[in-house]
Each structure stands twice: as C-alpha cells, then as structure tokens.
Automatic annotation (TrEMBL):
CDD domains: RING-H2
Superkingdom per UniProt: Eukaryota
Identification of the protein by name: RING-type domain-containing protein
SMART domains, per database record: RING
Pfam families: zf-RING_UBOX (PF13445)
Keywords linked to the UniProt accession: Metal-binding, Zinc, Zinc-finger
Domain RING-type: 140-196
Organism: Durusdinium trenchii
Keyword flag Zinc-finger: yes
InterPro entries linked: Znf-RING_euk, Znf_RING, Znf_RING/FYVE/PHD
Length: 203
C-alpha cells in the first residue's frame, strides 16, 4: 500500500512537458557543433547555427519529430539551467541530456534574430578578408601593435597565428581579429577603418 502511494506521489510531482519541449540525448567525443548565444533577458541558450555535427545529425535522423534546429532553445543541459553552467557542460561532457524548446518566446526570438544577423554578416566579411603570409607593413592601425606575417612554420609563427594579418580589398592591412571585430560590429555595410571604403555584403 505504501509502495502504491509512493508511486502516486512520484507521478504527481513529475513535470509534464509542453508539446513544444522535449528531451534530447547526445554523445560526442568532440564538439557538439552548436553555435549558441545567450542574453541577460533570457534564462536559456539559443541555437544560432548548427555546424557539422555527427551527433546532431544522427539524433535528427532517428527522431524526426524531436529535431534540433536553429532557433530552438536549450533550457537545460545535464540538469543545469544557468547558461554558463550549460556551456561548461557542453564543452567538457562527452554525453549530454538536453531540454529543448522548439517554440521560442518573443525575447528568445529577438536574441536569435540579432545573433543570426551578426553571424551572417561575419560570414560575409570572411569572403573578402585575404590572409597575408608575407608582407612588410606598419603596425595595425586598430590596436597599434606590430603585425608579423612571415610564411614560416616555426614555433614563433604558430604563436603568432592568433594575430594573423589580413588585407582588405582596398589594400590596407590589419590584424584579422581586430578588423573582423570592426567590420562586423559596426552598423550598416562594413567599411575600411583607414580609407572608409564601403564593402557591400549580402546578409
């Protein structure tokens, strides 16, 4: 009798998920291929883009009615609901249990649209940034640090790769990370920080 009461109690406490929310289990030895974004106005992570991911592809193939799609939100990862903790789980765990919401609210949709627009602009900017491996240029006019672009495979070159040098269509050179932030973060079409030339992009 006590056992039956315990079962009834468990059922009464169990959460019944809305039809637009479901559980997902993924396993991967490497990255899960999810580009995510968050914002202080939402208590979740929004899926901005799904990159090459065998785990997501396999899940979507086996569960066509509970797919993981761009614009969906991760409400929980391995029991964690704080965005930072969810990101930590996705970075370190080889298996994750997700609570996915397929119907974003107005705030989540707004965050998704803004993040998606930035990603599209970033992808468009990448199409005209030309990485330079041999040059003799002045310091980067954005950060004012020296630019080193030698076509070698030394340990020094590997350490400098994070500060790769790129050339814009107008011929000016910058650190890739500096000018990418400048071009993507500005309003309207991206333009050169030096000559103000506008580079039209299709987003």
């Amino acid at each position: 009798m006590a056992f039956l009461k315990a079962i009834k109690c468990f059922k009464s406490r169990a959460k019944v998920l809305p039809e637009t929310m479901y559980r997902v289990h993924l396993e991967s030895e490497g990255p899960y291929g999810l580009m995510l974004c968050g914002h202080e106005t939402i208590q979740c992570l929004v899926i901005v883009s799904i990159q090459k991911s065998k785990a997501v592809k396999a899940w979507n193939s086996d569960h066509p009615h509970c797919r993981i799609e761009e614009g969906h939100s991760l409400m929980e990862v391995n029991g964690h609901t704080e965005p930072k903790q969810m990101l930590d789980e996705l970075r370190r765990a080889k298996a994750v249990d997700l609570l996915v919401s397929a119907e974003p609210n107005a705030q989540q949709l707004s965050v998704f649209r803004a993040a998606r627009a930035l990603k599209l602009k970033s992808d468009a900017v990448d199409t005209f940034l030309e990485e330079v491996t041999s040059c003799d240029v002045e310091p980067c006019s954005i950060c004012h640090e020296e630019m080193c672009c030698h076509n070698t495979h030394t340990a020094q070159h590997a350490a400098q790769h994070a500060a790769a040098v790129v050339r814009l269509p107008c011929g000016h050179h910058f650190h890739q990370k500096c000018v990418k932030k400048w071009l993507v973060g500005g309003r309207g079409d991206p333009r050169c920080p030096l000559c103000n030339r506008i580079f039209e992009v299709a987003c």
